[in-house]
Design goal:
262 residues
Length: 262
Amino acid sequence: MARRKPGRREQILKMMLYPLEWLEERSGLVGAVRYFLFRKVPGDISWGHTLGSASLTAFIVQAVTGVILAFYYKPDPNSAYESIRYITDDLTLGWLIRGMHRWGASVFIILMFLHMGRVFLYGAYKYPRELNWIIGALLLVLGMLEGFFGYLLPWDQTAYWATVVGVNLQATGPFVGPFLGNVLQGGTDLGPDSLARFYSLHMLVLPGAIAGLIGLHLYLVIRLGVTSPPWSPTAAGRPQPGPPPAGRSGLVEPKPRGARLR
Protein backbone atom coordinates (compact mmCIF):
# COMPACT_ATOMS: atom_id res chain seq x y z
CA MET A 1 0.00 0.00 0.00
CA ALA A 2 1.36 3.42 -0.95
CA ARG A 3 2.44 5.69 1.87
CA ARG A 4 0.22 8.66 2.56
CA LYS A 5 1.82 11.94 1.64
CA PRO A 6 2.36 14.03 4.78
CA GLY A 7 0.03 16.99 5.05
CA ARG A 8 1.05 20.61 5.45
CA ARG A 9 0.45 20.50 9.18
CA GLU A 10 2.76 17.52 9.63
CA GLN A 11 5.41 19.15 7.49
CA ILE A 12 5.26 22.36 9.54
CA LEU A 13 5.44 20.35 12.78
CA LYS A 14 8.43 18.41 11.48
CA MET A 15 10.21 21.65 10.56
CA MET A 16 9.54 23.09 14.01
CA LEU A 17 10.81 19.97 15.78
CA TYR A 18 13.92 19.59 13.62
CA PRO A 19 16.12 21.96 15.72
CA LEU A 20 15.09 20.14 18.91
CA GLU A 21 15.74 16.75 17.34
CA TRP A 22 19.12 17.96 16.09
CA LEU A 23 20.02 19.19 19.57
CA GLU A 24 18.75 16.06 21.30
CA GLU A 25 20.61 13.71 18.97
CA ARG A 26 23.92 15.46 19.64
CA SER A 27 23.63 16.44 23.30
CA GLY A 28 20.68 14.78 25.04
CA LEU A 29 19.77 18.14 26.59
CA VAL A 30 16.14 18.03 25.51
CA GLY A 31 15.63 14.67 27.18
CA ALA A 32 17.40 15.88 30.30
CA VAL A 33 15.14 18.95 30.58
CA ARG A 34 12.08 16.80 29.92
CA TYR A 35 13.13 14.35 32.63
CA PHE A 36 13.80 17.24 35.05
CA LEU A 37 10.38 18.81 34.49
CA PHE A 38 8.27 15.64 34.40
CA ARG A 39 10.08 13.32 36.82
CA LYS A 40 8.06 11.54 39.49
CA VAL A 41 8.06 12.92 43.04
CA PRO A 42 6.51 11.50 46.23
CA GLY A 43 2.81 12.18 46.61
CA ASP A 44 3.12 13.28 50.26
CA ILE A 45 5.40 16.29 49.78
CA SER A 46 4.30 19.76 50.90
CA TRP A 47 4.95 23.43 50.25
CA GLY A 48 8.06 23.14 52.41
CA HIS A 49 9.72 21.32 49.54
CA THR A 50 9.51 24.46 47.41
CA LEU A 51 12.03 26.35 49.58
CA GLY A 52 14.90 25.05 47.46
CA SER A 53 13.27 26.32 44.26
CA ALA A 54 12.54 29.63 46.01
CA SER A 55 16.22 29.94 46.95
CA LEU A 56 17.21 29.27 43.33
CA THR A 57 14.75 31.92 42.14
CA ALA A 58 16.19 34.43 44.61
CA PHE A 59 19.70 33.70 43.32
CA ILE A 60 18.59 34.23 39.72
CA VAL A 61 17.02 37.57 40.69
CA GLN A 62 20.28 38.55 42.41
CA ALA A 63 22.31 37.57 39.35
CA VAL A 64 20.09 39.48 36.90
CA THR A 65 19.83 42.64 39.00
CA GLY A 66 23.57 42.45 39.78
CA VAL A 67 24.46 42.39 36.10
CA ILE A 68 22.24 45.42 35.48
CA LEU A 69 23.82 47.31 38.37
CA ALA A 70 27.30 46.42 37.09
CA PHE A 71 26.53 48.33 33.88
CA TYR A 72 26.51 51.60 35.86
CA TYR A 73 28.55 50.94 39.00
CA LYS A 74 32.15 52.21 39.11
CA PRO A 75 34.45 50.32 41.53
CA ASP A 76 36.56 53.34 42.38
CA PRO A 77 36.57 55.17 45.75
CA ASN A 78 36.12 58.52 44.00
CA SER A 79 33.17 57.36 41.87
CA ALA A 80 31.51 54.45 43.71
CA TYR A 81 29.15 56.45 45.90
CA GLU A 82 28.22 58.83 43.08
CA SER A 83 27.46 55.91 40.76
CA ILE A 84 25.18 54.42 43.42
CA ARG A 85 23.43 57.80 43.80
CA TYR A 86 22.99 57.98 40.02
CA ILE A 87 21.48 54.49 39.90
CA THR A 88 19.08 55.28 42.73
CA ASP A 89 18.00 58.81 41.82
CA ASP A 90 18.53 59.35 38.08
CA LEU A 91 18.47 56.01 36.29
CA THR A 92 15.05 54.86 35.06
CA LEU A 93 13.77 52.26 37.52
CA GLY A 94 17.23 52.22 39.07
CA TRP A 95 15.73 52.53 42.54
CA LEU A 96 13.72 49.36 41.86
CA ILE A 97 16.69 47.36 40.55
CA ARG A 98 18.90 48.41 43.45
CA GLY A 99 16.12 47.75 45.97
CA MET A 100 15.51 44.28 44.55
CA HIS A 101 19.24 43.52 44.74
CA ARG A 102 19.68 44.97 48.22
CA TRP A 103 16.68 43.34 49.87
CA GLY A 104 16.93 40.26 47.69
CA ALA A 105 20.26 39.46 49.32
CA SER A 106 18.55 39.12 52.70
CA VAL A 107 15.71 37.10 51.15
CA PHE A 108 18.26 34.76 49.55
CA ILE A 109 20.00 34.06 52.86
CA ILE A 110 16.72 33.63 54.76
CA LEU A 111 15.37 31.19 52.18
CA MET A 112 18.57 29.14 52.32
CA PHE A 113 18.35 28.95 56.12
CA LEU A 114 14.70 27.86 55.90
CA HIS A 115 15.55 25.31 53.20
CA MET A 116 18.38 23.80 55.24
CA GLY A 117 16.16 23.78 58.33
CA ARG A 118 13.51 21.84 56.43
CA VAL A 119 16.13 19.39 55.12
CA PHE A 120 17.49 18.86 58.63
CA LEU A 121 14.07 18.39 60.27
CA TYR A 122 12.95 16.00 57.54
CA GLY A 123 16.16 13.98 57.78
CA ALA A 124 16.87 14.56 54.09
CA TYR A 125 20.61 14.71 54.80
CA LYS A 126 20.78 10.97 55.47
CA TYR A 127 22.14 8.29 53.16
CA PRO A 128 22.54 8.61 50.22
CA ARG A 129 22.20 12.40 50.30
CA GLU A 130 25.11 13.34 52.58
CA LEU A 131 27.08 14.91 49.74
CA ASN A 132 24.14 17.11 48.79
CA TRP A 133 23.91 18.30 52.41
CA ILE A 134 27.59 19.26 52.37
CA ILE A 135 27.11 21.15 49.10
CA GLY A 136 24.12 22.97 50.60
CA ALA A 137 26.19 23.99 53.62
CA LEU A 138 28.90 25.34 51.30
CA LEU A 139 26.26 27.28 49.36
CA LEU A 140 25.04 28.88 52.59
CA VAL A 141 28.58 29.95 53.52
CA LEU A 142 29.26 31.32 50.03
CA GLY A 143 25.94 33.18 50.07
CA MET A 144 26.84 34.93 53.32
CA LEU A 145 30.30 35.77 51.98
CA GLU A 146 28.64 37.21 48.88
CA GLY A 147 26.62 39.54 51.08
CA PHE A 148 29.68 40.54 53.09
CA PHE A 149 31.79 41.42 50.05
CA GLY A 150 28.92 43.33 48.47
CA TYR A 151 28.31 45.44 51.56
CA LEU A 152 31.36 47.62 50.92
CA LEU A 153 30.48 48.53 47.34
CA PRO A 154 28.30 51.63 48.07
CA TRP A 155 31.42 53.10 49.76
CA ASP A 156 29.48 55.16 52.30
CA GLN A 157 30.20 55.55 56.00
CA THR A 158 28.04 52.58 57.03
CA ALA A 159 29.59 50.27 54.45
CA TYR A 160 33.13 51.41 55.18
CA TRP A 161 33.10 51.01 58.97
CA ALA A 162 31.04 47.81 58.92
CA THR A 163 33.62 46.29 56.58
CA VAL A 164 36.45 47.52 58.82
CA VAL A 165 34.86 45.65 61.73
CA GLY A 166 34.38 42.50 59.63
CA VAL A 167 37.93 42.50 58.29
CA ASN A 168 39.40 43.14 61.74
CA LEU A 169 37.42 40.22 63.13
CA GLN A 170 38.83 38.06 60.35
CA ALA A 171 42.34 39.30 61.05
CA THR A 172 42.13 38.17 64.70
CA GLY A 173 41.76 34.53 63.66
CA PRO A 174 44.58 32.11 64.48
CA PHE A 175 47.40 31.34 62.06
CA VAL A 176 46.03 32.61 58.72
CA GLY A 177 43.81 35.37 60.14
CA PRO A 178 46.27 38.27 59.76
CA PHE A 179 47.29 37.06 56.31
CA LEU A 180 43.67 36.91 55.09
CA GLY A 181 42.91 40.32 56.55
CA ASN A 182 45.89 41.82 54.73
CA VAL A 183 44.93 40.10 51.46
CA LEU A 184 41.35 41.33 51.63
CA GLN A 185 42.33 44.91 52.43
CA GLY A 186 45.20 45.01 49.99
CA GLY A 187 47.25 46.74 52.68
CA THR A 188 46.88 47.99 56.22
CA ASP A 189 43.71 50.04 55.57
CA LEU A 190 40.69 49.90 53.30
CA GLY A 191 41.32 51.74 50.05
CA PRO A 192 41.14 51.43 46.25
CA ASP A 193 42.72 47.98 46.28
CA SER A 194 40.20 46.78 48.86
CA LEU A 195 37.25 48.00 46.82
CA ALA A 196 38.58 46.38 43.64
CA ARG A 197 39.13 43.05 45.40
CA PHE A 198 35.74 43.08 47.08
CA TYR A 199 34.10 43.94 43.75
CA SER A 200 35.86 41.12 41.87
CA LEU A 201 34.98 38.60 44.58
CA HIS A 202 31.37 39.80 44.71
CA MET A 203 30.86 39.94 40.95
CA LEU A 204 33.02 37.13 39.56
CA VAL A 205 34.50 34.59 41.95
CA LEU A 206 31.65 33.92 44.37
CA PRO A 207 28.77 33.99 41.85
CA GLY A 208 30.65 31.54 39.64
CA ALA A 209 31.30 29.21 42.57
CA ILE A 210 27.68 29.45 43.70
CA ALA A 211 26.37 28.76 40.20
CA GLY A 212 28.62 25.71 39.85
CA LEU A 213 27.58 24.28 43.22
CA ILE A 214 23.91 24.93 42.44
CA GLY A 215 24.29 22.95 39.23
CA LEU A 216 25.86 20.04 41.13
CA HIS A 217 23.21 20.35 43.84
CA LEU A 218 20.39 20.13 41.29
CA TYR A 219 22.04 17.17 39.56
CA LEU A 220 22.15 15.24 42.83
CA VAL A 221 18.54 16.16 43.63
CA ILE A 222 17.47 14.82 40.23
CA ARG A 223 19.63 11.71 40.49
CA LEU A 224 18.67 10.79 44.08
CA GLY A 225 15.08 12.05 44.03
CA VAL A 226 13.02 14.13 46.43
CA THR A 227 12.69 12.92 50.01
CA SER A 228 9.37 12.31 51.73
CA PRO A 229 8.46 13.74 55.17
CA PRO A 230 9.82 11.80 58.19
CA TRP A 231 6.39 10.33 58.96
CA SER A 232 6.20 8.74 55.50
CA PRO A 233 7.02 5.05 54.92
CA THR A 234 9.43 6.18 52.19
CA ALA A 235 11.28 8.74 54.32
CA ALA A 236 15.04 9.08 53.99
CA GLY A 237 17.03 6.52 56.00
CA ARG A 238 14.25 3.90 56.04
CA PRO A 239 14.28 0.68 54.01
CA GLN A 240 12.39 1.35 50.81
CA PRO A 241 9.50 -1.01 49.98
CA GLY A 242 9.57 -3.05 46.82
CA PRO A 243 12.49 -4.07 44.62
CA PRO A 244 15.42 -1.70 44.28
CA PRO A 245 15.12 0.70 41.34
CA ALA A 246 17.00 -0.12 38.19
CA GLY A 247 20.26 1.78 37.87
CA ARG A 248 20.72 4.51 35.30
CA SER A 249 23.95 5.49 33.63
CA GLY A 250 22.90 9.13 33.49
CA LEU A 251 20.01 11.52 33.30
CA VAL A 252 18.91 10.32 29.87
CA GLU A 253 19.51 7.20 27.85
CA PRO A 254 21.18 7.64 24.44
CA LYS A 255 18.74 7.53 21.55
CA PRO A 256 19.29 5.89 18.17
CA ARG A 257 20.21 8.14 15.33
CA GLY A 258 17.15 9.79 13.78
CA ALA A 259 14.81 8.96 16.69
CA ARG A 260 11.76 11.25 16.91
CA LEU A 261 10.87 13.28 19.99
CA ARG A 262 7.68 12.26 21.76
